[in-house]
Design goal:
Strand order of the largest sheet: 8-7-6-9-10-11-12
Number of strands: 14
Radius of gyration: 33 Å
Bound molecules: 6-phosphogluconic acid
Distance between the termini: 78 Å
CATH superfamily of the largest domain: N-(1-d-carboxylethyl)-l-norvaline Dehydrogenase, domain 2
Structural class: alpha/beta
Strand content: 5-15%
Length: 626
Amino acid sequence: MGVVYIVMGVSGVGKTTIGKLLATELGVPFFDADDYHPESNKNKMASGIPLQDADRWPWLKLLSQNITEWSNDGAVLACSALKESYREILEAGGDVKFVFLEGSQEDIANRLAARKDHFFDPTLLQSQFDTLEKPKNAIVVNAKNKPEVIVREVMSKENTKSELGLIGLGVMGKSLARNFATKGIKMSLYNRHVAGKEEKVASKFVDQYKELEDSNGYDDLEAFVNSLAIPRKIFIMVNAGPAIDAVIRSLVPHLSEGDVLMDGGNSHYKNTQDRFELLKDKGIHFLGVGVSGGEKGALEGPSIMPGGSKEGYELVGAYLERIAARDKNKDACCTRLGDGGSGHFVKMIHNGIEYAEMQLIAEVYDVLKTNLQLDNSTISNYFKDWNQGALESYLLEISGHILTKKEGDVFLIDVILDKAKQKGTGGWSTTAALEIGTSLDTISQAVMTRIVSGYKEERTRAEEMYTLSRKHTTLLSIETIKKAYKVARIINHCIGMEALRKASQEYNWDLNLSEITRIWTNGCIIRSRFMETLGAILTTSSDSLFLSNDIRIAIQAGLDDLISFQAETLKSGMATPVFSAATNYILAFTRGESSANMIQAQRDYFGAHTYERKDKTGSFHTNWED
Ligand code: 6PG
């Protein structure tokens, strides 16, 4: 869609000259509203009879219809448009911007007196000025200047609007703002004003970085919104939860239909779905945008998972793709995933996989340190060695670095408290999995393990109370541990992808799982070499990944090692809960016969819930005590 610039002002102010020049500058056609007057109006004007509003309505309506057509590619129209009511009719036609040529009555009278062969009677000028209602939202330029100067002024004023707005200058908001600006996108940045705490945050931030020299900082929301080009595109980077709703509530009165709002935080996908519906009713496009990569990723190229309005993505997708990380083919790690809350659902499962991946590394570290009694540097070297080829991942890479970080003579890892926090996304994925009936063993176990880590005081007391034969030695070889880790990772990823497959069916999102793994190959916290392998498998298979032959071969290659790892760590008194979850999941999943016949019988025994049989179809109930 293009914009129709309406060059307006009283007769004789220079609308045609300026309009034609502006059209040339913009590369769009020029139209003169006078050419659309019916003959009766032209005759009246030529005879010096002022036009009445009744004369103007059909003419304005005709122009409005034409504006609808001209809006396709953009145009410039010269039209006096003196009254607000006239402008409203023109505006109804399409995306219109007024350029108001402002001049004094004396200057214009002099100019008109010098004109020949024009049907306008200079004596009508007074009535034109009497009629003129100055526009409120126009690009205002001084008609006295030379035409070239006026056009340059219009162009520069037009370009002062920012392409993108961003609200919330926390760590992630700041990094994203700098990333957008580095890609040449003019930004308007807003941060709330909290007396004594958050004052002039946005303008101070803008002054701090060279890449933000074309951007502007605001703590006045209305001024921020008015600084944005239409349709407005606003990225919200405030804490997930009620703060997002508060920002949306305060923004909406200043927005127009067709504007786009994006929530780039870790919002719950159901909240995103509700916000999507609410804003859809108001004609505002809403996208829930998962952003992964932490502070550095946001600055240098995150993985971006947008879901929500399709029309909205058409307006903002190019901006998001410009700041995203690149995959191995240099394509952006950003793609619209589906409707409603799909983007935040995918980000939530990303985080779930992240929780379990982190815990698997923590368990390997524990076994290498406690059972094999290796020091930090040796473990770090193993991690660095493994972090090549198929096992390469960002989380393994940073874990290798973590183990060498020292404060003076002390390894930092040794003084960090063994109590992990969480912000909620792992737990949400567990709840979501229960709701859609998909098993999320490794991920939910990682969530529970973080919870148990929080029982530090009780754990310490319990250690003294319980006598356990912790041998703290193991027969495990490094090679077995490595292979067990490799298989547990595969199982964890397949479990996460299976949750996405089920959610896509449940919510009709039509998620492209292969595309999801592609945008997870770079930028995000769970980026890894294995993501590429998964992507290739997912392009040909829509079934459960566990039933893919490639996955079967990969799991089978290390399954005995995984089982040995599990058995040996348990025997030596170590808890390796996410390895256990992975082992038990794969052992249960690959067994045609399970023990659930006993569960069915128990349910029927105490609750008459009925059971199904192997030898007959239907539901059966037995009087068990007869
Ligand atoms: C990312 C991360 C990020 C998340 C942190 C902390 O993809 O960049 O997932 O979004 O906020 O990892 O999460 P927890 O506090 O729940 O561990």
